[in-house]
Amino acid sequence: MKKYKANIQGMTCKGCERHVVSALENIGAKNIEVSFRRGEAIFELSDGVGVENAKIAIDETNYQPGEIKKIPSEENVVLYNEEGYDLLIIGSGSAAFSAAIKSTEYGAKVGMIEREIVGGTCVNIGCVPSKTLLRAGEINHSAKENLFTGLQTSAGEVNLASLVNQKDDLVNELRKQKYIDLIDEYDIDLIKGEAKFVDENIVEVNGEKFSANRFLIATGASPSLPPISGLEVVDYLTSTTLLELKKVPKQLTIIGSGYIGMELGQLFHNLGSEVTLMQRSERLLKKYDPEISETVEKVLIEQGINIVKGVTFERVEQVGELKKVHIAVDGKKKVVDSEHLLVATGSKPNTDSLNLSAAGVEVGKGKEILINDYARTSNEKVYAAGDVTLGPQFVYVAAYEGGIVADNAIGGLNKKIDLSVVPGVTFTNPSIATVGLTEEQAKEKGYEVKTSVLPLDAVPRAIVNRETTGVFKLVADAKTLKVLGVHIVSENAGDGIYAATLAVKFGLTVDDLKDTLAPYLTMAEGLKLAALTFDKDVSKLSCCAG
Ligand SMILES: Cc1cc2nc3c(=O)[nH]c(=O)nc-3n(C[C@H](O)[C@H](O)[C@H](O)COP(=O)(O)OP(=O)(O)OC[C@H]3O[C@@H](n4cnc5c(N)ncnc54)[C@H](O)[C@@H]3O)c2cc1C
Predict the structure, then answer these.
(1) Is 383 a catalytic site residue?
(2) What is the structure's pLDDT at 398?
């Protein structure tokens, strides 16, 4: 049998799909899958049946068959290990599901092992729960700090238990829709328990052994603890347990001010806690452009969040319910007391329990799994994707890498991972979004750099919103004017960064941005205004940058 994909125009509903299925069945096609949404049919034909018969059969249904392609590199597809799986995946997060779905589309038999809750970090304890609560926090903040005259808004005491229940309902719903239901939909075998390698070909779960042609390690990462004396006996919180609190704490101290510390700090500030963010480094967001760090620091301080930088953590202790953090700043000792202490100092890969040496899989200094450009580990049958490799820790990176694993491990392709342009967003308010090179990185790479910095008070959307603390910064190659990096602090910066990502990825120039219409009164217009700022004072322009 050979497998084909046909493009079909004109299907509009499930009924259309049924017509195409029956037409293909009539010519002896097998394993037929038709999707009117994607406008395609995937099917298998035995060697004696020519693909032109399929074209005629589809044509006779009155839909319009387009190109019919043999599914690429079918001969290379690594399929059907008689006794075991074609692909056995450890983990059930975003990298795992993306690899599993694509592999089943190649016709592979896929097993997936999960030791905790199906769906992994993003839906259960990461993106979804944090972003829905952040939204609630923002609404509470706006109610307290309404910027418009003539409106009466007020915010009462926050019922965190109720918010957390509502958040849990959403998590359960999305986990079901986006993960659990897909297990049956794509015919994936779910194996519950903790996986460890026995040898290069076998993984053991609860004493049962499973073999496979290929393996994917997609076990993610967990919060890591800094080496601060006393932490092991203090009742501290992680991002997971903080999102389960039922009462807003009076004070919340946060060790670490990366994106998780900042988002969760602002969330609890908006819900009514007194929040202190503490970090070792002298500069907030030290890897970002200085304009971004300074703006974010200014806005967080204006909002009432305490920021302590350049901290040496001496020890922590618990006295009754109170957590005491003993620190030194500029040689001066201090104790910061709070009801709750959040530790948000990064993450460590989940590799300890996997017995990787039995499979000959090498790890790096931080115990992350080392992979090559094709997502393959030091054992060519074993692949890894997502947070466990300690690459950029975003769910879309994990899912992208999982897809590459399916293409390479099952599809027989040789696709390289390309993480040269990865947008990143911190969902504070204002939010922070960046893509491409910072000014410093561009200079280190040898570019002659030209930059433009546009304060947010020059962006009409920010003016009408009455929230003008923020900035747009463009970094361009001075010779070609190609956009190398875009860095934004504004409301909904994450929505604007997608256009910037396209600009950086596809080598658009500052002139391309200037010459492209930007809808007036969107925050994304700031991108065009920042481009115009290279040679104009945009405060002297009329509306719509005209
Ligand atoms: C608070 C927070 C907020 C975040 N917000 C965002 C955001 O807004 N946007 C964004 O893009 N990213 C966000 N992230 C990051 C994002 O959630 C992760 O990058 C992504 O979920 C990683 O996916 P993964 O598939 O690599 O691993 P995971 O989703 O972590 O899945 C790994 C799974 O493997 C299982 N496992 C581990 N070891 C074993 C074993 N030995 N046997 C069986 N199973 C095992 C684990 O139980 C887990 O379910 C956030 C993360 C956190 C913590």
Answers:
(1) no
(2) 98
AA identity, residue 211:
S
Q: Write the CA distances from 307 to 140, 189, 265, 342, 362, integer angstroms.
A: 22, 48, 10, 14, 39
Q: Who contacts 276 (Cβ-Cβ below 8 Å, separation ≥6)?
A: 251, 252, 253, 254, 305, 306, 307, 308, 336, 338
Q: What is the 3-state secondary structure (H, E, C) of 486-497?
A: EEEEECCHHHHH
Which of ligand 1's atoms lies nearest the C-alpha of 386? Answer: 26
Distance from Cα 388 to the centre of ligand 1, integer Å: 9
* C-beta of 124 in contact with ligand 1 (< 6 A): no
pLDDT in tens, 1-40: 788 889 898 898 889 999 999 999 999 999 898 888 778 8
**pLDDT surpassing 60 at residue 77:** no
11 is catalytic: yes
DSSP H or E segment with residue 105: helix 94-105
Ligand 1 in contact with 195 (CB < 6 A)?
yes
CA distances from 245 to 241, 301, 325, 340, 527 (A): 7, 25, 21, 10, 39
pTM score:
0.88
Q: Choosing from 127, 186, 374, 498, which is the catalytic residue?
A: 127
- Neighbouring C-alpha atoms within 13 Å toward the C-beta of 251: 14
Residues 106 and 76: their CA atoms lie apart, in Å, by 11
Query: How far apart are alpha carbons 33 and 210 in whole angstroms?
Result: 29
- Distance between Cα 219 and ligand 1 center (Å): 8
User: What burial class does residue 485 get, using C-beta atoms within 10 Å of its C-beta: 0-12 exposed, 13-18 middle, 19+ buried?
Assistant: buried
d(CA 473, CA 512): 16
The answer to whether residue 520 is catalytic is no
**What would the pLDDT profile of 184-206 be if each residue is shown by its tens digit?**
999 999 999 999 999 999 999 99
Long-range contacts of 235-239 (CB under 8 A, 24+ apart): 235/318, 235/323, 236/316, 236/323, 236/341, 236/342, 236/343, 237/340, 237/341, 237/342, 237/343, 238/342, 238/343, 238/344, 239/125, 239/126, 239/130, 239/264, 239/342, 239/344
Dist. CA 491 → ligand 1 center (Å): 26
